[in-house]
Amino acid sequence: MSNFLEYDLTNKINKFIFELLKLTLFINMPIKNQEVLKMAKMKNLFFILLTVVALTGSTFLVGCGGVSEEEMQQLNDLKAEVDALQSQVNAKNDEKSGLQKQIADQEAKVKEWQGIAEGIRRNCP
């Protein structure tokens, strides 16, 4: 039993010394080397995140199935309906333009007749 305790204690002491040496070496390491290590860690983290994002994105792309024939037919029907409604809107806009022109012509005639009536009132005592 004592051999096991001695082995365990020795093992713990060795681990402690090893950790202490690692810390000492890291602290005494030149600042430039510490920056290089930090950059390497950041680079690794970046590539890990990039890989995760790529895998996640590809999962969403693969998960999107194709379009069924029924959905394609519905889409084509909706496009045809939109085209028909757009042609109706264009026809109504043309009709509106024609009516606005007629109104402008009528207003011009009214002003002309008002000018003639005003001239007659001035000429007649």
Blueprint (SSEs and pairs):
Layout: H1 2-28, H2 31-63, H3 69-123
Keywords for this entry:
125 residues; 0% strand; 3 helices; mainly alpha
Entry summary:
The chain is built from 3 helices and no strands. The protein has about 120 residues and is mostly helical.
How would you describe this protein?
This protein is mainly α and 125 residues long. It has two domains: 1-64; 66-125. The chain has helices spanning 2-28, 31-63, 69-123. The longest helix is centred in the last third of the chain and has 55 residues, at 69-123. The N and C termini lie far apart (143 Å).
The N- and C-terminal alpha carbons lie at a distance of 143 Å
Q: What would you call the structural class?
A: mainly alpha
Helix fraction bin: over 70%
Please summarize the sheet with the most strands.
none
Tally of strands: 0
Number of helices: 3
> Uncertain regions: pLDDT < 50 for 5+ in a row?
none
Described by the principal axes of the CA atoms, the overall outline is elongated
Bin the strand percentage. Answer: under 5%
